[in-house]
C-alpha cells in the first residue's frame, strides 16, 4: 500500500509518494512530539504547583508569626495581671486576718473565730495531669486565696452581726441616773403621793430628780427620739423609744437638745434641767414605760449596767 500526495505549485503539479514504513515513522515522530510536549507541560504544572504551595506556606508563616507573638504577649500580660491579683488577694487576706483578730480580742468568740487558722477543707484525692497542673498553678493559687478570703469575709460578717446586735442590746439596756452631779437627789418617788398643787392623793407615774437649773439630762439607754417639745403637764419633754416596748420620758426641761428622729446613744445629752410645765422647781420628771404601762424608775436608776 502506497500513499500519494499531489499538490500544485506555480502551475506545476507534483506528486509525493509515501510507503508504509515512512508513514509509520512519520506518525511515530508526531506522537512522540505530542507526548514530549505533554510531559513537559505536566512537569511545568507540577513545578508551578510546588512553587505555589511553598509561597502559600511562606505567606502563612509570615502571617502567623505576628499573631503568635501577639498571642504570646497577651498571654504574658494575662499572667502578669493574675500575679498582681494573687498579690492583692494575699494583702487582703493579711488585712482580714488582722481585722478579725482585733474584733475578737478580749471576747468570748476567740475560739469560734480563729482568723490565724486555715479554713477546714477536704475531699477525696484525685490525680491530675502534671502539665495541666503546672500551667494552671497561678489559677490554682488564686482560687485557693479567693476561697480563703470568702471564708474570712463570712466569719467577719457573722462577727460583725453579733457585735452589732450585742452593742444594741447593751446600749438599749436602761440603767443609771438621767442626771448626775452635786445636789442631785430624788425629791418625789414613784407611786401614790400628795399632789403638790391639789394637795390630794394622786398617782405619780415617775420619779422627780431635783437638781440645779441647767444640769445636763442624759439618756439612760440607746434609742430613737419620738417626742422633743412641749406637752401639757410635762412642760418641755423628751421621749425616747428603746425597743421591745420600752420608753423613757424626761420632763420639765429648760431646753431640749435633740429633735424627733434622732438616734441616741446611752449617756447622750438630751436636755437641760428646768421647771417648765406643771412644776414647783428645777428637776427632771423621769418615767419608764413598758408597752404603755408605767414602771418604777428607781429599779432602773439603781440597776447595774449590762455588759
Task: Walk me through what this model shows.
The chain has 307 residues and is of the alpha+beta class. The chain contains four helices and 14 strands. The strands form three sheets. Strands 3, 6, 7, 8, 9, 10, 11, 12, 13 and 14 form a ten-stranded antiparallel sheet that branches. The longest helix has 85 residues, at 20-104. Mean pLDDT is 76; it is low at 109-113 and 130-135.
CATH architecture of the largest domain: Distorted Sandwich
Termini gap: 139 Å
**Which residues sit in consecutive blocks of at least 5 with pLDDT less than 50?**
109-113, 130-135
Number of self-contained structural domains: 3
CATH C-level category of the largest domain: Mainly Beta
Tertiary shape: rod-shaped
What structural category arises from helix and sheet content?
A: alpha+beta
Q: Strand-and-helix sequence, N→C?
A: EEHHHEEEEEEEEEEEEH
Calculate Rg over CA atoms.
52 Å
CATH superfamily of the largest domain, by name, is Glucose Permease (Domain IIA)
Using the coordinates shown, work out and report the CATH topology of the largest domain.
Glucose Permease (Domain IIA)
Please report the total strand number as a whole number.
14
Main β-sheet description: 10 strands, antiparallel
